[in-house]
Amino acid sequence: MDMTFDALKQKMKTINAINITPFDDQGRIDWNDLRNNIDYLIRGGISMIYPCGNTGEFYSLTLQEAMEVTRKVVEYASGRATIIAGIGYDVQTACEMAKHAEAVGADGVMIHQPINPYMLNGGLLAYYQKIVRSTRLPVTLYVKSEQVGLDVLREISREPNVVGVKYAVNNLPLFAKTVKTVGNDIVWICGTAEMWAPFFFAAGAEGFTSGMVNVDTGRSFAMLAALKANRYAEAMDIWEDLRQFEELREKNSNGNNVSVVKEAMRQLGMCSGKVRPPITELQPNEKEMVRQVLVKWGLLQ
After folding, report:
1. pLDDT band, residue 289 (cuts 50/70/90)
2. Fewer CB atoms < 10 Å away: N or C end of the chain?
3. CATH of 5-230, one of 1.10.150.20, 3.20.20.70, 3.90.1150.10, 1.10.3660.10
4. Domains in the chain: boundaries
5. pLDDT digits (tens, 9 = 90+) for 2-18
């Protein structure tokens, strides 16, 4: 769908859903389950969907698979939601992915943080500039490390098609300082989901990402409504309701992140639960913990 950058910024001030990439028992992408996943999110009220995010196991997909996931999600959404495609890797590949996302009708792209172990400000800025300038689409940056600092974000935010930052560094004083320094011409999104959303909103965020919405959208929307109305006590009650699920996802240095979501979906009959290496399925006791949460939430008998 065509929209102005300003209109997209307003739409981003919500739940930014990171859909899964479902696999069958042979490890191939299950396109039917992907269609059902997108339909489930949209029926649940989700208006912003990010294929090829980390909950979508971006780094476990081949380039061809990732581009096909983007194409299919645009097709499945069929104009019912705004689609922001995850892109990344080296500069040339990211530019190719951005051009592909534009060609298949995505509404924007999200640049994953570079995975190169050696990064300097000048190189980071050049990396982002080349990708941003390769596309007419609006661009969101995914920041996961303090290595992407104030100077880089301040400079790249001057590019006219940079519309937002998904900030996934759980350093709230630094985040608040970054928002104040870089400014509010872009949308600041809490990139560490419901577990951190109340705290990030207090520091300047206006939306948050979510992988949990693949399992249940209602609780996320309840939190969003409370935060937008500055009802922080209510938001923290919802936070407490979600805490066990989200803490299980954070186990093993976030190694459980996708596995917990997919296991919950498996128990609800929404996908096979299969993940690709280096991720693994949960241990039996962890699967039981997921079941207990689903029962507590009234989603499972």
Report:
1. very high
2. C
3. 3.20.20.70
4. 5-230
5. 578 999 999 999 999 99
